[in-house]
Amino acid sequence: MIELDTLSVTFAAGSALRDISLKIAPGDRLGIVGESGSGKSLLASCLMGMAPDAATLSGTLTIDGVDMSDADEETWRPLRARRVAMIFQEPMSALNPLRRVGDTVAEPLRLHFGLSRDEAAKRVAELFAEVDLPNPERRARMFPHELSGGQRQRVLIALALACDPALLIADEPTTALDANVALQVTDLLVDLSEKRGMALVLISHDLASVARSTERVAVMYGGDIVERGGTDDVLHAPQHPYTQGLLAARPDPQAALRDEQGKRKRLPTIPGNVPPLSGLAQGCRFAGRCALERPDCATARPVPHGPRMLLCPVVEGAA
Amino acid sequence: MTRLPANFLLGAVLVSLMVGLAALSLVWTPHDPTALDIRNKFADPSMTNWLGTDKLGRDVVSQLMLGARNSMTVALVAVLMGGSIGVVLGLLAAGIGGWVEDLVMRLADLSFAFPALLFAIMLAAVFGPSLSNAVFAIAFINIPIFARVTRASANQIWTRDYVMAARAAGMGTFAISRDHILPNIAAAIIVQATIEFAVAILAEAALSYLGLGAQPPAASWGRMLSEAQTLMYLAPELAIYPGLCIVAAVLGFGLLGDGLRDITDPRLVRER
Q1: Which of A107, A143, A145 should one mutate to test binding to chain B, selecting the residue with the greatest count of B CBs within 10 A?
Q2: Is B168's CB within 8 Å of A85's CB?
Q3: Who among B160, B165, B170 is closest to A111 (CB)?
Q4: Residue ranges per domain, chain A?
Q5: Please, which residues bridge with residue A227 across strands?
Q6: Which of A203, B186, B205, B214: disulfide with B220, CB 3.0–4.6 Å?
Q7: Which residues of B120-151 are buried (b: 16+ CB within 10 A; e: fewer)?
Q8: 8-state DSSP, A300
Q9: Shortest CB distance from B169 goes to which of A73, A90, A108?
Q10: Which CATH class is domain B11-19+52-267?
């Protein structure tokens, strides 16, 4: 349904996505994980045809068999909301503070399906009920500031679902929410994806919610997909050094806080920071922070290999 | 409830006074403002002529009231006309960007190179002196002012997440500008309109004073001022009355605009 073939995005400062190839079939649930700055959100905006003006794209992006790599705004517009829809990280700022949330959700319905005001309002109430908003008719007449964070995110999900998209991209949908509300929202996304047969791309740095809700996962670092595979396989037996570091850096609530000497244990971290675009290595992006680094890693571009398309020449890829 | 700023309150009082006078003149004036009574010229203030009469025996209060109506009408029409064109141009510039934005903004720069009043005089000279030409001239000089304010505020709103969300929902530039941008920049536009209202009143008075605006016998503060000018030694009060009215109206709208800005822009209030 959606296919990316060696999609690359370059800015003046450097390349932000390198040769991303991905296939998303109807009903797929794909998680994309990685640190801030790894290119996750940029990838999402490419899938919506909303990459920043300053970006140069190469490679191909096909939606329903149509090549959209060079499509302009007018070609993209009818696909948005109807084929691909998106929900955003920050539910407060993603809603116009001066509009009733019902009107915001009615907008794409009226635009794409030409519904009348009343028909749209009826459909909005149905959508609000579908995303488990209590008292849908009343909620529709409220302004964003009258809703809680979780309710706002549900409104945004309803907005994204309005035109029955084939793919829903959720860009860190739970980052701004409390842990238990975040779980509810993630579960809601999975439910909706199953009921509607809608594909879901969940972008997150919350490994727990990715593990809970997706079948496949792609790990991104520095604009590369460094490892991919079944979510359980990758998260339980990570192969790429970066994935291993990412998983090791996860706090374990069951683990003892202090070691035998009574000293507070420190969480393992990946040394260093994600370098800025201009400072990324020509070869493996992870060079400089990697424990398994070889002298030629920083210069030789790694080739994806093995069933996990592993982007590391040092590690032997296994199933 | 926080206290309203003093400039807003004073402005509101002056503005309601002027608007009240103008509105009242629609239904009632003490005398017919154009009725001549030569025998009664330069009359002192009295129970019948509260502020006396002018060189042709016309009642000053009635003329001032009509002048208020004239000023308000000119300012309203000119600001509405110039403002709406300017807002549309500003929204287009911000929404489409690229060469459209460059073109609109460079044209605005160009028009700022001409002193506004001089430009109005030129228009009046070309198309002949009349009140409607004065209105067009004042409207025209308002276009770039509103285009700039609108574009600057709209560009800020275009970066908001909810605009991204609207784009992701498939809305086009036009629909986003109408439904999301315009309501969120309305406050800035209203503030600007109030201030430009004051400028327009002053411009109308200046044009009428120069004989390029309201033509006799229509009453206008600017024209009253120019008629009184030659009689400054004989009857200085005839120049003072319309002068005070112009000051009160301009000051009133200016203060009201500043006050509105203080109320709608929380950043400014905190700094004080």
Answers
A1: A107
A2: yes
A3: B170
A4: 2-224
A5: A219
A6: B214
A7: bbebbeeeebebebbbbbbbbbbbbbbbbbbb
A8: S
A9: A108
A10: mainly alpha
- The CA distance from A187 to A62, in Å, is 29
Name the minimum distance, in Å, from the CA of B110 to any CA of chain A.
28
Residue A15, helix vs strand vs coil: strand
Select from B161, B177, B185, B190 the residue whose CB has the most chain A CBs within 10 Å, as the one to mutate to test that interface: B161
The pTM for the full model equals 0.84
CA atoms within 13 A on the CB side of B255: 19
The CA distance from B208 to the nearest CA of chain A, in Å, is 42
Q: What is the ipTM of this complex?
A: 0.83
Q: What is the pLDDT of residues A210-263, one digit of tens each?
A: 998 999 999 999 889 999 999 999 998 899 999 988 888 877 777 777 777 777
If one counts every other C-beta atom within 10 angstroms of the C-beta of residue B7, the result is: 18
Instruction: Tell the CATH superfamily of the A2-224 domain.
Output: P-loop containing nucleotide triphosphate hydrolases (3.40.50.300)
Q: How far is CA B161 from CA A46, A85, B48, in A?
A: 16, 15, 65
Q: In sequence order, which residues have a C-beta less than 8 Å from that of residue A290 and are 6 or more positions away?
A: A241, A242, A284, A297
Nearest-Cα residue of chain B relative to residue A49:
B168
Residue spans per domain, chain B: 11-19+52-267
| pLDDT 10s digits, B46-72 | 877 778 888 888 888 999 999 999 999
Residues of B with Cβ-Cβ distance to A99 under 8 angstroms: 179-180, 183
